[in-house]
Every structure is written in C-alpha cells, then in structure tokens.
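W.,

You were right to be curious about this one. When I first looked at the sequence I had no strong expectations either way, so I just let the prediction run and decided to look at it fresh. Below is the sequence, 357 residues in total, followed by the output.
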Amino acid sequence: MIILFYAGTLFFKKLHLSLAVSIPVFVALTTFLIFYIFKRKTAEKRDTVLTTNYSLYFYSVTILFALFHLSNYNYTPNLLIFAPIVVLPQFVTGFLIGFIRIKQGFIWGFFLHGLHNAIFILPFLLFPFSNHPKLIDKIDKDDYTFEVYEGFRFSSPEYAKSQPLTAPRKITSNEIVLYGTFKNVVSTLTQTNKRNIRFKNSILAEKEISLFFRNDSAKIESARIASFLVFDNLLKSYNLKTKKEQRDLTIWNLVVKNEHLFKTHICDSLDNISQNTTRVFFGVRDTLKLHSINSEFLAKTLRIAFDTEIQNDIDKNAVFSIKIPNDNFADLKHFLESNYGLTIEKKTEKRDMLVIF
C-alpha cells in the first residue's frame, strides 16, 4: 500500500498535480478498485479476511490517514523522503482515535477527532486579533514622525486613514507606510535587491515589521531622501550597523539554445508588447501564461517567480508567448530547452553586498 502510494504520488506529480489533488485522487481510485475486487459474491470471504488480518488492516488505514496529511505541504522530493517523520504526529493521533473508535464506537472516535481539531482551530476563530503588534520605537520630532512595530499593525496611526491596511505599501516624500519582513522592508527603503542584502541575525531578517513615517518638513524633498531617513531610524531602533562588502553571486543567463525551435514561438505580429503583469506563482498548480512578451520581460518574470537572479542575453526585439508551470527551479532549464529552445546558463559575478549587523 505504501509503495503504491509513493508511486501514485510521483505519477500525479508528473502531470503537474499537487499533493492536495493527487492524494485524494489516488485514494478514490484505490477505494474503487477495492470495492470492485470485493464484490457482494465475496463479501463473506472479505469479512473473514478483514477479521483474520484486522491488525494489518488497522495499521494500513492509520498509515494512509497520516500520509494523507502530506497535502498540507507544498510538494518537494525531500517531503516524500522524510514523509514518515513529517506525518508522525498524525500517525500517533490516528492510532489513538482508531483505538477509541474500536473500543467505544464510531461516535466517540468522530467526537475525539473533532475535539482534537477544535483545540488548534478555535483560538484563531475566537481571538483573530490576539497577536497585537509590539511597538519597538516611536520618534516624534518637529518635522517628522517615525514608528516601527513588530507584527502587523492592523490600523494606521492617527495621521493616516482610520481604515485597516490590508497590504500597506506607500512611499512618498510626505508619507511612508510599509509592512513585510525586515529584509524586504530594507530592500524597499534602500532600493537594493534582497539577494544583495545579508543579515548577521537571520531570525531578525525574517521578522515581520510595520513601519510608519510622516513628514511635515519642506527639507525632505523626495521619496528617496525620506526612505534613507526612515532606514537610518530603523537601524537606530534596533541598534544595527551596516557595511558594504563584495561576494561571489551565482546568476543565470537566459539564452537561445535551439534557434529553430525558438523561432516557432515568435509572434508573427511585431506590434507593441502586450501589458502582462509580472507576478509570482499563485499556487502549486498555477501556470504563468505570458502573451506577446520580449526576452527582458521573460527574464524579469522568471526572476520574480523563482526568486533567483536571472539576466537576459536574448535579442529584446523578438516577441513571443510562453507558458511556464509552477515547478522546481531545477526542472526549469529542461522545460525551457525541450519546449521553447531556450536555456539558462549558470555563471558567477562579483556583487556589492549590504551587510547588516
């Protein structure tokens, strides 16, 4: 059963189906086969087999119950390798619930399962705003106000709108409102690619913060000046310093490998490039469908979607369309080569690094 499960999961993955889809489909097909094999004519024999080998049946169902919870995670090869460790808590829970069901009946097993889930879900339903943001620093001066919080600040300060900010991001010379990880906020303020930012404290880099700045001074004439002022205050709030250093950075060049195959995808019309939106993948089954784009736009999209430094080495005048499935970056090179005649070549470059310590 376990071998069939792993084989089935890998098969459905080749079809670009997520675990959340492949596991239920696999279970449904397996259930159908079981009921097809054990027809009514063999019901008595089936019951005898189940009774005689009930321990095997019980543990098989418990293992399947645990493995089903792999659908809670995004697919990676390592997930299947370490699946027994990942789903060990679900196996123990399934064993206890199954034991209660056998001893006390279905209702008690069902109730225990519901109670177990409620313990973890109810606190988020009853107290959705219990995780209040923590004020780290507040600076009030004659010409500006600065505030930084750890966590999501659900409403803006008194100088901003009273409505909650669902995705706060505003940068002007008069006002800056940002929310995200410390590293992303620094990247935005300094206009530095986050791949070129290194934190000595990796935990701080991933800490979510909310930042507010209000300027009432005519001396701060641009958003760039305001951003660096906010960045300086942010460093002081956390008692941090910065320095510049060089390091070797791995980058990938987008190039044409099969000219003939690539030309079959070039659009006949060389009109203006359509307005596509560069974005990341929205889910494991998502596909980026890009229509009438050039190589610069493709490199930018790949860079954002796979969070990897990808540069363009293709003629920008070629306009084409492409569909990119959400797969591992390791499979991207093979996909581009076999379907579009493109490839990505690895190389190393010296880059300036902003170090925060």
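Here's what jumped out at me. The two ends are 52 Å apart (CA to CA). And, maybe more interesting for your project: The longest strand covers residues 242-256.

Coffee later to discuss?

I.
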